[in-house]
Design goal:
With about 400 residues, the chain is an alpha/beta fold. It is built from 15 helices and 12 strands. It has a 7-stranded mixed beta sheet, with helices on both faces. A 3-stranded antiparallel beta sheet has the order 9-12-11, with helices on one face. A two-stranded parallel sheet has the order 1-10. Helix 4 packs across helix 12. The radius of gyration is 22 Å and the shape is globular. About 45% of the residues are buried. It binds pyridoxal-5'-phosphate (PLP). The site of pyridoxal-5'-phosphate has 11 residues, from helix 5.
Length: about 400
């Protein structure tokens, strides 16, 4: 396998200092910091020194909007459909508290004139990240249904279709499962929820920046993502997409002066939700992260998303081949269309293996029963080979 043709990999790698120090294969925990992200951060710091609060009006306000717009572009979403929030958990919580108990299409399901039944069921899968489940587990009025994956790797959309019905308030699940890298079909999820009159809420933390995302085309109602992992922008922010057609009907109860139309009127009685997704914002976004996020995403945009996605696929296939050749079992999707660059290698002693790899200068992570390896566009074929070679060495004692 040769690198994707248009990519100057050696040059790209010089932008990420960690790559000269470590074999870094843990981008699904934290994407590497680039010199571009640092340059944005330096600019932020310099303006803070030189302008103080005036930088808000002349620069930083514009940076917030630039980031919202860039994320919308990346995710196939119209301008105005992305809000900045402090974390995915905060974004999910804001969404849950914003919906009327009955979804708008419920009237059609119930029939004209019928009193709509109360929707209180939420359908998720057992492969979702816990913070998604917790949003519903803490609300006793909601009935949380956790569907079980048959193979422990992915879900068949039919499982959702069978479980989502007129009692369902949310179909809430991941775009890409953190535990297995399995990529779900966004369009199918949106359609299953819509048909039953439920809301679709997608945790896309491992989607945006790793695999193509088309929020508008898929028709999902809500999609959360963030700069921390595949977008190489660091911790402190999350992105919330809200389908523009429904935004106006939503009333987030947890709110802030960033949610109101005339923020600088300072009118205690003049709260009017923004027309767009900003109605979900929860106060001043973390400006340092706004800057590192812009830098990280900009660099990847210059590489080109198709190249990023193609290279991640190629590195994943190579990693899997090396594992198969050396007798390691994997917890990954059988078909390529469902695979992503999160590779779970079954291991009897994941923590010991991760510590061994760390001593060899290789950074990966441990999850119960597995060593988790997640290459990104900037990794080399040799780095992928090296992690498997070291695992073989560890196995041989
Ligand atoms: C899929 C997924 N969702 C949510 C989270 C947690 O997000 P936050 O800490 O921003 O609430 C993580 C963290 O790694 C994750 O992997």
């Amino acid at each position: 396998m040769s690198p994707t043709p248009q990519l100057d990999l050696a040059s790209l790698r010089t932008h990420f200092p960690i790559l000269a120090r470590k074999n870094y294969l843990n981008s699904c925990s934290l994407g590497a910091l680039s010199d571009r992200a640092e340059a944005y951060l330096d600019e932020f710091r310099e303006r803070w020194h030189s302008m103080g609060a005036s930088a808000w009006y002349e620069h930083w306000w514009g940076r917030l909007q630039l980031l919202r717009d860039r994320v919308a572009d990346l995710q196939g979403a119209p301008q105005g459909s992305v809000a900045l929030l402090p974390s995915t958990s905060a974004a999910l919580s804001g969404v849950v508290d914003s919906v009327p108990q009955a979804a708008p299409s419920l009237a059609a399901v119930a029939g004209p004139g019928a009193a709509p039944p109360k929707r209180n069921r939420v359908v998720i899968s057992d492969l979702d990240f816990p913070t998604l489940a917790y949003q519903f587990a803490t609300r006793p009025e909601l009935d949380l249904v956790i569907l079980e994956s048959v193979d422990g790797v992915g879900m068949d959309p039919q499982q959702y279709a069978d479980a989502v019905d007129e009692r369902t308030l949310f179909l809430a699940t991941s775009h890409v499962f953190y535990a297995t890298g399995f990529v779900q079909d966004l369009e199918a999820l949106g359609e299953i929820a819509r048909r039953a009159g439920a809301w679709s809420l997608i945790d896309g933390y491992h989607g945006a920046g790793q695999v193509p995302v088309d929020c508008e085309g898929s028709g999902v109602d809500f999609y959360t993502s963030g700069p921390l992992k595949w977008l190489c922008g660091g911790p402190g922010l999350s992105y919330l997409y809200v389908r523009p057609e429904i935004t106006g009907s939503l009333r987030p109860r947890a709110t802030s002066w960033f949610s109101t139309q005339d923020q600088f009127a300072f009118d205690l009685e003049g709260f009017h939700y923004h027309e767009d997704a900003r109605r979900f914002e929860m106060g001043t976004p973390a400006l340092p992260t706004v800057h590192t996020a812009l830098g990280g995403q900009e660099l990847l945009e210059e590489v080109g998303w198709e190249t990023v996605f193609a290279r991640n696929r190629a590195l994943t296939e190579r990693l899997m081949d090396r594992c198969h050749e050396t007798g390691f079992s994997l917890r990954t999707a059988v078909t390529a269309e469902h695979r992503s660059a999160i590779v779970m290698i079954a291991h009897p002693d994941p923590r010991g293996a991760v510590a061994h790899l760390d001593r060899a200068g290789i950074i990966v992570d441990a999850r119960p029963g597995h060593v988790r390896v997640s290459p990104h566009v900037y990794n080399t074929e040799d780095e992928v080979d090296q992690v498997v070679a070291e695992l073989v060495r560890y196995r041989s004692g």
